[in-house]
Every structure is written in C-alpha cells, then in structure tokens.
UniProtKB/TrEMBL annotation:
It comes from the Bacteria. Residues 48-227 form the DUF1989 domain. It holds the Pfam family DUF1989. This is DUF1989 domain-containing protein. InterPro entries: DUF1989.
Length: 283
C-alpha cells in the first residue's frame, strides 16, 4: 500500500460531477401515461412458478405489470424488441443514465446501435423505500443475474435453476431455439423487487431481504413490441442465499393491459438512435 500524498485530503474532497444529466434525455410523458393507465383493461397474464421462468409479450402501447401474488419474491427480468432479439435491454447503460436502482419514470434502454427505451416504468408500489441506511434500494441494475457458472466457480456445484438457466430454458421454449442459441440472447437483468447495494467499507455487492409484500407491483409501458422473460429467482426474497433450493420461493405474476383506442393520443414510439455509425471512417 502506498503512502498517501500530502494533498490526499484535497484530492478526495473534489466534488463529484453527474456523468449523464438525466434532464437531457428524452422524457416520457408521464401525465399522458398516468391518465391512460386509469382505464386500461387486463388482456393477458402469465404465472411464473417458483424457481422457473416464463416468457410474455406486450405490444407497443400496452402496459405490463409484475407482481408478487403470494409471498416476497425477487424476479430477474430480460426484455427484447420482439421483432429483433439483437435489440435487448442494456443494463449497464441504463445504470449509467438512471442510477443503480430504477423506479417510476426510469426507462429500460436498449443495446447499441438503437439505444432507445424499450419500456418505461409507470408505477412502483415500493417507491417509498428510497435508499436505506446500508445504501440498499430496490429494483437494481447492478447485479447481473444468478448463474450456474459463478456458482460453479464458488462452490463447484451443478445447480440448474439459477435465473440465467431459467431464462435460457424459457426463451428456448418460447422461440424453438436450441438451449445454446437461446443462452446467447440472455442478458443482464433488471432485478425486480430485489434489495441490493454496495457495502460502504469494501464496496462489495450485497443483497438483503426484499421489502416486497403480497400485492406489490412494478408496472411498465411497452414503448416497442416487447418480448419479456421473467425468472422467479431461487433466492426467494434474497435474504439469505441463491443458487440453491434452500430459500423459500414464491411465484410471480405478469399481467398485460390494453388501452382503449385513442388513449395514447400524442404518444410517439421511440425511433432508433440518431448516430450515423460511421465511427470516423474516412477522416
Ligand atoms: Zn436469480
């Protein structure tokens, strides 16, 4: 360990600068969406059994809602442009734009070169939680997803119901792809209902029992035709451990809602990003 320089305190005291001022982003019309959702009608639902994943579809202009119908349960969410699976949720850039945890008004941005909102969060019954004394908050985009490879590294075991594997099986079943092909489309998730943060002393990723209770939900507006996959994490409320069958687990529910025609008057679907993709070629 090196000796701190004489001006170490002054260097540490430099004030931070927000990397991406969120005010510069194209803003969702939350007033329009709040008005529209009051009269939406449920048109589909998918129940996700404990320690499993299932796919669901929401057309552009529909809402989808993830809820805990039973007991506290964390969900790992993947979403794609249903018409082009190469365009998928970009957890890292979403984190850079909105912060470590998402709530109402945040958007789920898609991968390059499109970088546009796939979905916008319109309602969050856990928005009261904020950031707790440990630095924890809910609905994170910092964890990646529990997976059998990390589990194997740490424990040497073969566990098949990590969210990564659940999502892989669900996508394979939905699309008819082989498992190995489907796995290539599985990506870093939005950890729905999960309560996480980084420890203040060592900067390590931590989880704690989710504050979610029966009836809580997180709701989204589909900005494009969305194919979603949701895994009911084997960690249950993620208060103790995941990547095993130890934790008590519960199902999750996805409900899809449709609006009456004309309810989205003034809404404009997001277009692909405006960068010309020449990357400076030709000088
Ligand atoms: Zn998981």
């Amino acid at each position: 360990m090196h000796t701190p320089p004489k001006d170490a305190a002054a260097r540490r005291a430099v004030a931070p600068v927000i990397c991406y001022p969120v005010e510069a982003l194209p803003q969702p019309d939350l007033t329009l969406l709040r008005t529209a959702r009051k009269r939406m009608v449920k048109t589909d639902e998918v129940l996700i059994p404990a320690r499993q994943a299932r796919c669901f579809n929401a057309k552009a202009g529909q809402f989808f809602r993830i809820s805990c119908p039973d007991g506290p349960q964390v969900g790992d969410l993947n979403i794609w442009n249903a018409n082009n699976l190469a365009e998928r949720f970009y957890s890292g850039k979403t984190r850079a734009l909105h912060g470590t945890h998402l709530s109402t008004g945040c958007r789920m941005w898609s991968s390059f070169p499109n970088l546009r909102p796939l979905a916008t969060i319109t309602h969050d019954t856990l928005d009261w939680y904020g950031i707790d004394e440990f630095g924890g908050s809910v609905h994170d985009v910092i964890g990646t997803r529990c997976d059998p490879y990390t589990n194997n590294l740490l424990s040497g075991g073969q566990y098949h119901h990590c969210c990564h594997s659940n999502l892989t099986r669900a996508l394979a079943e939905e699309t008819g792809m082989a498992l190995a092909e489907a796995e290539q489309h599985v990506h870093d998730v939005l950890n729905v209902f999960m309560c996480t943060g980084f420890t203040r002393d060592t900067g390590q990723y931590f989880m704690k029992a989710s504050p979610v209770r029966q009836g809580d939900f997180l709701e989204f507006f589909a900005e494009v035709d969305v194919l979603g996959a949701l895994s009911a994490c084997p960690g249950g409320d993620c208060g103790s451990e995941h990547s095993s069958d130890t934790a008590q687990c519960h199902p999750l529910l996805v409900e899809v809602f449709t609006l009456e025609s004309g309810a989205l008057k003034g809404w404009v679907p997001p277009v692909p990003n405006g960068y010309d993709r020449s990357h400076g070629a030709g000088g």
